[in-house]
Amino acid sequence: MRLQRIDHVGYAVEDIDEAIAYHRRLYGASVSHREEIPRDGVREALLAVGESYIQLLEPTRDDSPVARFLARRGPGVHHVGYGVADVAGTLADLRDMGVRVVDDTPRHGSRSCLVAFLHPKSAMGVLVELVEDPSLTAEGALRNG
Length: 145
Ligand code: CO
Hints:
binds cobalt (II) ion
């Protein structure tokens, strides 16, 4: 099994503070991490749910992919992040199987994770993000000696 966990579910939102308040009010969720990612044109907030996160994404510029998603489809689920031990290896294997990818090579996402996106056309209509979390990898390395 290549997938270790559901790392996060990413939501496109118009107003991140409103979305945080909504999740706090309904579920008692709180923010465990905030970051702005200029390359992707988003600011994000991560709300921890067990070992996974709800990821709220608000665009910071009109031409960002999340802004285009909001303009086209409105707020909603934008992508799903799958936790893997080795993004580069997983990406290479999937490409060998003919899977279309958005990122040819892994790149840095938030939380110092390595990430790569698969194209929805090759992923059952869902934008899939592979996520390698170095803090979990380090823990795993420690655990496994
Ligand atoms: Co994500």
